[in-house]
Design goal:
Layout: H1 3-6, E1 10-13, H2 20-25, E2 33-37, E3 40-44, H3 50-56, E4 66-69, H4 74-77, H5 80-87, E5 97-101, H6 102-106, H7 117-122, E6 125-129, E7 134-137, E8 140-146, E9 155-160, E10 164-167, E11 186-193, E12 203-204, H8 205-215, E13 219-223, H9 233-245, E14 249-251, E15 257-259
Helix pairs in contact: 8-9
């Protein structure tokens, strides 16, 4: 088999929206994203509307082998239990893996667990990760990375298999963040606001540019947009990042499929 055939992964965005008002109005869908690589199919951060978006964009959730939740904010987990039920054929077939941060799996400190004991018992295994922890789903190595966000136990993910994909999840850029995402073929950034607009605990495009310049991924994808990134702004900001960094940068759209 040729190298170009082996070194592939497919990413499907079941939504490119984030923030309270984008989610409440569904100005953009908010169903998270799907990673298909090395025989595994993972659903990352299945927020509101994940099931409807999966149907719309022809993603069969019964074929999932993993469900991951980076932190306990509703735009990242609202449909997580239903997605687990899809993965396990209505909790009738014990299969798949659930991965989340501490609060998503166990709750605590005022945070309720994302997954009930019923749903955790429906899967083959489940794991609560903290920054620096590593685990595997099949041949995919998953490393949890730190975030600077309102959920202080929130994590990002690095997926390493045929290709390497980084996902810092929600959170503002912080010094040293780049060391966790070196060598990525693709970097997926939750970019809430344009460069001129800061919001505590979230990344804007100026911070995204900083991380992209320091990590030099093969290419970058912006997603999880707030209202100020809509009406064509996300595409203009992606073009600005690409011009400033020299790294191909794409603004995600609902239903977009990318081969890495």
């Amino acid at each position: 088999m040729e190298k170009s055939e082996k070194m592939t992964a497919k990413i499907t965005f079941l939504g490119s929206g984030g923030s309270r008002f984008v989610v409440l109005t569904q100005a953009r869908s908010s169903g998270g994203w799907i990673l298909e690589m090395d025989g595994e199919i993972l659903h990352i951060d299945p927020g509101p509307g994940a099931l409807a978006a999966a149907k719309k964009y022809k993603v069969n959730l019964r074929k999932l082998t993993g469900v991951l939740v980076s932190h306990t904010h509703t735009d990242h987990y609202t449909n997580a239990e239903l997605v687990v039920e899809a993965m396990t054929s209505g909790a009738r077939i014990k299969r798949g893996t659930v991965i989340g941060n501490k609060y998503a799996i166990r709750g605590g400190d005022g945070h309720h667990a994302v997954f009930s004991s019923f749903h955790l018992n429906a899967v083959s295994n489940y794991k609560a990760l903290k920054p620096g922890d590593e685990t595997n789903v099949g041949r995919i190595k998953i490393t949890a990375t730190p975030t600077k966000h309102k959920d202080e136990k929130g994590i990002g993910f690095v997926f390493e298999g045929s290709v390497k994909i980084g996902y810092p999840s929600d959170g503002m850029y912080f010094n040293g963040q780049e060391k966790h995402f070196q060598g990525c073929d693709c970097l997926i950034l939750n970019c809430l606001r344009p460069r001129s607009d800061n919001w505590p605990g979230h990344m804007n495009t100026r911070q995204a540019l900083e991380l992209i310049k320091k990590t030099k991924p093969g290419f970058a994808i912006l997603q999880h947009f707030g209202m100020k990134m809509l009406k064509g702004v996300s595409f203009k900001e992606a073009k600005w990042i690409e011009e400033e960094s020299g790294i191909k940068t794409i603004a995600a759209k609902d239903g977009m499929k990318i081969t890495v």
